[in-house]
Every structure is written in C-alpha cells, then in structure tokens.
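User: quick one, fold this
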Amino acid sequence: MNIQEMKEKKKEKGYTNEQIAELSGVPLGTVQKIFGGTTTSPRYDTLKALEKIFLPMERYYASVVKDASAAYTVKRQGEYTVEDYYALPDEQRAELIDGVLYDMASPETLHQMVGGYIYARFLEFISKNKGNCIPLIAPLDVQIVCDRDKLYKNRIYGAPDFILEVLSKFTRRRDMVIKLQKYANAGVKEYWMVDIEGRRVFVYIFDEENYPVIYGFDSKVPVYIWGGQCEIDFSEVYNYIRFLIES
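Assistant:
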C-alpha cells in the first residue's frame, strides 16, 4: 500500500493524525509529516506500521509474512492456527484467540508504567517472602505462575495463577469479554483489569460467586492467590502516573 492509498483510507475512515499515531505506534510528528506531504519516502518499517491499520486483517498478515519469506497460507479470520501465529515475524505483535489474529499496537506509556509498577511490587513480595511463584510481564499485562512445571523456555504450558490486564479503548472489549471468558475456562484463579481512564480495578476470583469486586484508585487491593498478604495500593499507583494524566 502506497502513501496516496493510505491518505485515501485515512479520509475514508475519518482518522486523525493522533489516532493513526496511537494505533500504529509511529510518532505523531512522523505521521504529520507523511500525511502532510513533507516526507514522501518514509522508512520501510514506518510504512509497514502504518499499513497495518489501513489494510484488512487478512491482507495485512499475508503481507508481513510474505515479506518475512515464511511458509504461510492466507486464511480468513477464525481459521488461523498456532502454527500460523508462530510463523509471524518476531517484531509483529499479535494475539490469537479462537482462530482470529488480533494486531497488538505498541502499549502506551501509561500502560507500561502501571504494569511495570505492579510487577515490581509483586516481585518484591515474592523475593521478600522467598516464594516459589514467578512474575512475568508483557507489554500490556502481568502474569504470575506458581507452578514452575508450567514454564518451558519462552512459553507457559497451562494457565497462570494470576493475570492482570491494563485496559485501553482499543482492547477493552477483548479484555473484558472475550479474554475474561477464556481465562475463566482455562483455569486462571485471579484476573485483574485496571481501568486507568475510569480509575477502577475489576477483580475476578473465579472460584467465588460474587465477582467482580470493583475497587477505586483510592483502595488497597488484596491479592487473593496469596491470601491477601500482598496488597497493591492504587493511590500509590495513581501518584506514580498522575503527572502524565494531569499534564
């Protein structure tokens, strides 16, 4: 897809430069220069990052895998497999749920800060108490695995005991509906969803009936899998990120 085609798609979809920057992970200044005509020959990786928000999902994944020279068969959404997922280039972030490939844009600074802060508190608690659990962090979520037999190289075989997702407007439905049900069925014990915009934390304890429990950002939220011995003080979390929210 060339720049002119992207400009036409931008107009058709009604995207602003700010939305394109957020969806693609390309800096806003670069987006403004490209769509304003100042930059006429963007870098290849910039073009591919922009392309992913304008092409239909099937065409986009066919494009990135073809460029990576991987053996790959283009399929319709709902037909993709784990093998297809692992055939994607390493730099391409995606999720596979029920045969559907979801593109994952780079996380916002706020999301990384919240996830990183909570991960650090968990790691501190485990280290202090000489626990057997292992906390793992991805760009958008925190996971805790207390059965080390579930870990093999860079993968987890089986459900983590705890998962935390930081919600965004682009992944909110997926995290709150689709993945919620998947986690419950898979055997995850505890699932937190942190809503920065609403300043709320949704806590699901799947072996109890009265969920979710909803906490505000003025609350200390106990970690159920550790019997409440570890708490995350979300007033501290908010103080950590408030300079970005209020700026």
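User: anything notable?
Assistant: Residues 57-72 have pLDDT under 50 and may be disordered.
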